[in-house]
Every structure is written in C-alpha cells, then in structure tokens.
C-alpha cells in the first residue's frame, strides 16, 4: 500500500482554531486541499480552508461524511471525543492515532503513562473524593494544585491549595469531576521541546524553547533557550525517547518545569503543533505546521534549522479592550511578523494573534517582541 499522501490530496482537520489555521496555510502552500470540522462557522481554520463542516463532534454521521471526503484526518486540539476519532478512522487514517489522543487528553492517563514508562513527572495523586484530597494534601504538602483530569487547558479547571482551608473550596470547584492533585513546583523556569516523529520513526526537534506564562496562559516564548547544555541535552533526549515510546506520528510538544536544582519534570504533553512553536513559522526552515503535514502524510521530515534567534508574544483579547490594536506601530518594526487569527470576537484571555521577532540573539528578540507588543496598545 502506498502510504504517502501527495499534493492534490485533501487533509481533514478536526478542530478549527489558530493551530488548524496555520496548518491549513502550510498545507495549501504545498498544494493540498484542507477540510475542517468543528461546531462553529467562519472559524480561524475555516477561513483559510477549502471546505468547513459545521457539526457537533458527537454527530457521528457528519464525522463519517467528513472523513469519507479526505485522504487523512489530523486534529488541532486534543479535546476531540474518542468516539469522533473512531468514527473518522473507519474511512481515513487518523494521525496521530486515537490512542495517542486518548492518553494525552486526560491528565491522569497521561501522568500514569509517563510515570509507568519512567519519565520524570511532577508528584501527583488521583482524586475522586474529598477524603482522597485531604489524604493527598497531607502526602504532597502545601502548596499544591488541584486540576480536573479532563478538558483542562490554559489553567482552566485549576485551583491552588495554599492552606488547609482551601481544600474544601478547591474540591467544590470540581463539581464532582475526577481530578489530579499536583505538587506546586517552585520552578526556575518553564521550557518546552516541540518535536516530530515521521511515519517511519524519524525524529526531528526545534531545540529547547523558554516559556513565560501569565495567568496560566503562555505569554512569551524564546528560542533558543539559554540554559546549561546538560539540561538542553536532557530535555531533547527525554522528548526523543517519549515520542518513540508513545508511538506518535506527527508533532508533539513536551512541556517541562526546570526546578531550582536543575531537574526536569514533565508538566504536559500536546499531541499537535503548540503555541510555544509558533516562532517556527517565521524563524525555521520548516515550520511546526509543515512538519505536522509532512509527518502525517508519510513524507520525510523537513530541516528544523533556526534561521535566526526568535521570540513570540501572544496577543490576547484584552489588547482589543480599548479598540483595535495600533497595527501600524507593530508594522514599523521590519523584523517583527504579525499574525492575526481572524477570530470574530475578542474576549479576555482569548488568543487572538501573536507577534514573532527575529534578532541576532534570543534576548534581543525577546526585548523586541515585547516592545512591539506594547506599541500595539499605544493608540493616539
Ligand atoms: P497547565 O494547564 O497544567 O499546563 O498549567 C498552566 C501553567 O500553570 C503552567 O505552565 C505553569 O505556569 C502553571 N502550573 C501548572 N501546574 C503547576 C505546578 N504543579 N507547579 C507550578 N506551576 C504550575
């Protein structure tokens, strides 16, 4: 069987946000057609796709007809229900596989998988009742973080437990959902490795990226991260072995905490291109989106070479609060690229776009991207 999917073929994307949009732009540039599937219309991905299906993920008939019209199905966010992926896989290969999605869309399954395979994770406990939580806090100590096991992202469904009185309040916010209690890590910094594994088992990575979060949401990413060489090597070795062990075909992001003692702990996995890899669109020979396409289509992986040190800053909905951002101010920086996702409504905390700055060093790139973002808010 010819496993290679070549230009002219149609790629199906489950999900319709900015990750799908940048994937679709890469795919269309390479001569593929793109169909997207999500419950919404006029979406960031739909706006740049050949066809936008609007139906619920639970509408398995609609999912089947979507899958019949494409050569391959991939996804751009991991909260797609397992039944949706199963229905799609009756008609087209799904890459990464439903198994990878199943493991990574649920914190507890993900942590169990990682710890069983010997990867370093944050100390955690499974929480099903208030008694479980009381016991777990005694074992793990203060502060700790309670997180819903499923459907959490960007800090949603998380509460910090600082003192005994927080336990009941934190438990009540779960509304009966299964959860995970994690030790709160007083980390030195957060880093990620965005990497890809091809259909034939080849591995490629974009080095170690340094990430700064604000209110649990990624704020700024810088590449390359300036860290001790042994930490960089370790992060890449762990990621390589992880992609192999989980048997992923596609791009995967491994997010780490670097402790004050220089130890790496895995926080989260994302089985898709990731916000911290957006700089690759402008700064690498092959972007993470093209790499995803290459991997899922059975093509050889492209070079991940970094053309220039880069930094990315997210543009959240709050920048729109006082009206349209001052785009001209950002365009005046010749080394800054402006990305806007086409979302129809700007809400607080919603990712509306990002800026990427290229410079001679990662610290200069970081400085530039922050200055350019500040300028967006200077309206006169
Ligand atoms: P998450 O959605 O779990 O990736 O959490 C979003 C962000 O919240 C992380 O990138 C960290 O900045 C912070 N955070 C989450 N869990 C922990 C933890 N166990 N210790 C310290 N900070 C955390």
Describe, in plain words, how this protein is organized in 3D.
About 30% of the residues lie in helices and about 25% in strands. The protein has about 375 residues and is of the alpha+beta class. It folds into 3 domains: about 10-95, Rossmann fold (3-Layer(aba) Sandwich), CATH 3.40.50.20; about 125-185, ATP-grasp fold, A domain (Dna Ligase, domain 1, 2-Layer Sandwich), CATH 3.30.1490; about 185-375, D-amino Acid Aminotransferase, Chain A, domain 1. An 8-stranded antiparallel sheet has the order 13-12-9-10-11-14-16-15. A 4-stranded parallel sheet has the order 3-2-1-4, sandwiched between helices. Helix 1 crosses helix 10 and helix 2 (about 60-70) runs parallel beside helix 3 (about 80-90). The chain is built from 12 helices and 16 strands. Bound molecules: adenosine monophosphate (AMP). Adenosine monophosphate binds near residues 122, 145, 155 and 185. Adenosine monophosphate binds near residues 152, 155, 184, 190 and 267.
Which helices and strands occur, and which strands form pairs?
Elements: E1 10-14, H1 18-29, E2 33-38, E3 51-54, H2 60-68, E4 72-75, H3 82-89, H4 98-104, H5 107-116, E5 124-127, H6 130-140, E6 144-148, E7 158-161, H7 166-173, E8 179-183, E9 189-197, E10 203-214, E11 217-223, H8 229-246, E12 250-258, E13 264-270, H9 280-283, H10 288-296, E14 310-316, H11 327-331, E15 336-340, E16 351-358, H12 362-376
Parallel strand pairs: 1-2, 1-4, 2-3
Antiparallel strand pairs: 5-8, 6-7, 6-8, 9-10, 9-12, 10-11, 11-14, 12-13, 14-16, 15-16
This protein binds adenosine monophosphate.
The site of adenosine monophosphate (AMP) has 14 residues, from β13.
